[in-house]
Amino acid sequence: MKANTAIALIIGAISLWLLHQKAKSKLNKKILILIVNLLSCLVILIGSLTLIQDIFQINLGIDQLVFQEVKAEGVPGVPGRMAPNSAVAFILLGAAIFFLNKRFYLLAQLLNIIGFLLGFLGLLGYLYGITEFYGIGANTAMALHTSLAFIFLFISNLFVYPNRGLMSAITNEFAGGIMARRLALAVISVPPFLGWLVLQGKRARLYDSEVGIALLGVLNVLVLGIIIWWNAKTLGMIDYQACHDSLTGLPNRKMFSDLLSASLINASRRQGKVAVMFLDLDRFNKINDILGHDIGDRLLKATAQRLTSCFREYNTIARWGGDEFTILLPYISNSEYAAKLAQKILDILKPPFIIDNHYLHITCSIGIAIYPQNGQDGDTLIKNADVALYNVKRNGRNNYTFYNPTINPEDSELLILENRLHHAWDRGEILLYYQPRVNITTGKITGIEALVRWQSPELGLVSPGKFIPIAEETGLIIPLGKWILQSACQEIKDWIDRGLSGIRVAVNLSARQFQESDLVLMVSQILTDTGLNSQFLELEITETIAMQNVKLTKEKLNQLSDMGIHISMDDFGTGYSSLNYLKQFPLHSLKIDRSFVSDITFDPCDLAIASAIVALGKGLNINVVAEGVETEAQLECLRQLGCMEIQGYFFSPPLPAKDTIELLKEHQSVCG
């Protein structure tokens, strides 16, 4: 490699590195821009002067400006001078960097591609043994390592701004971008490989050069055609799966939303109407619970097939999720057509479904919203159709109705919450957060409490204060509570297996759960299934629950305590427990309710109650935990009272599992 070639490559590499730094960082941008401009112009200058010398057969004295090279006998060319095609490549490289720095992305990337092809052609010349590919005569030959250096530099230059210009067509996550990335290697490697094969045939005198050229063209088209067809086929499957429900084959929520948006734009232009129908299968969950999910899934598929037969091809039915379907009628002149179609759906579901000798009768409820009077956008129309649907359910099910603005919005919200809550945990919408409990004296985390959160795709983050009472009222708290206990135990066991020292998790039991006759058996089974040692589980019941049936409470708590499970009484001080009964329960902790902690620093009554609970705990040898500690003043007050542990935002808010793990790791590394 000539000295000036090496120098120009180093300058080009430095300017390219600085360009990458400019793209990533906002520091000293003006200085970086100036330096990159100067260096790129220097690269262009070196290439241009070399090319001028070759074209006009003159010597400007730049070839041996830095290093002297002695002319070897019998070697043509000027000592120290780079090959003309190397000079052209340097001009392209410098110009590409300069224009990228000026944000002319398209022009810069085109220059990069030309430069890459120039270097790639030189590489093929060495692979094929064809000198014409990398230079005309020895004095113009581009060295192999020079070709490789140019290839790497031009490729690196292309990826300085991967989301701009031509590169955006390759780096995007649409089907075209995925296909371009898949085909990039084939486009670069297949034609040269086929060319090499054809060249070997020519050299073996199997055919003349014209036949070889024709053969190369046919092979390239055939092989690349097969590669493109295969990619198109697999991408088509990916696109189909992304837009369709895997069970029923119907369009999914994403595709329905896209079609609805397009239909509303079209309807707005032609001043037409659009109907959105929300359909829910009545009491479908009972079939799932009694006959199993396999029968339920097959029933959903059969239902989808029947429903599809009701529609014209320009109408759309989609599976919204679970046992819910949405229907789009993009071209209606009046609401009567939607009403007739709704009745047709009710009628078509009347004949029984026969699945594995089970005769299954199923009905549905349908809510309808019309654009533009019931909403101007897709989200509003779907929400209002949903409200109409639950008005049908409230009035007996197996019917349809149109959205009416006079429907009580509070009642509608409760109905929607109730329906969405069904099997929300199976859909991955119910999340567990954990809040640590800390020893006041040592600062050590002594346990964590599992707290439930509901992240609904339609309703957003729903407060536990809203959905827990609904779950209690409807009985959904039983399966939900079991899921919470199972999930908490499984996560703690996983954390212990991953090296975290054992820490106790507290799980609240609801009133409905505690009254279940198989509660103790259920807890025992979960511990067996998850493999969690019972010493790492703590169950919390409220004072009110404990006093509903003292005999039953004592019996169940003793059974749970005998298993090695810790028992806590939550919200202590807010109920009406008798101290005589309290001493009969196998309690390990009393939790002072947050209502007494919030004003403890200035309300003497709250201070007196908290002091009495701490004294009671000490007298009964029961640990006392203060909930809702948010300030240092509250902490100091509780410390003076002799409270043993605290829980609240002062130490940490409830955290998702990932953040809880990090907190525990950090805490264990500090506290040991």
Automatic annotation (TrEMBL):
Entry protein name: Bifunctional diguanylate cyclase/phosphodiesterase
Query: Which PROSITE patterns does the entry mention?
Result: EAL, GGDEF
Q: Which UniProt keywords apply?
A: Membrane, Transmembrane, Transmembrane helix
Which domain of life does the UniProt lineage start with?
Bacteria
Keyword Transmembrane helix belongs to the record: yes
Pfam families reported for this sequence: EAL, GGDEF
Q: Which residues form the GGDEF domain?
A: 272-405
| Gene3D superfamilies, A to Z | 3.30.70.270, EAL domain
Segments spanning the bilayer are 31-52, 82-100, 106-129, 141-160, 180-199, 211-230
Q: Which residues form a coiled coil?
A: none
Classification from the root reads:
Bacteria, Bacillati, Cyanobacteriota, Cyanophyceae, Oscillatoriophycideae
Q: Which PANTHER family match?
A: BIOFILM ARCHITECTURE MAINTENANCE PROTEIN MBAA, DIGUANYLATE CYCLASE DGCP
Kindly give the InterPro entries that the UniProt entry links to this protein.
Answer: Biofilm_reg_signaling (IPR052155), EAL_dom (IPR001633), EAL_sf (IPR035919), GGDEF_dom (IPR000160), Nucleotide_cyclase (IPR029787), Rev_trsase/Diguanyl_cyclase (IPR043128)
Query: Does the UniProt entry include the keyword Metal-binding?
Result: no
Residue intervals of the EAL domain: 414-668
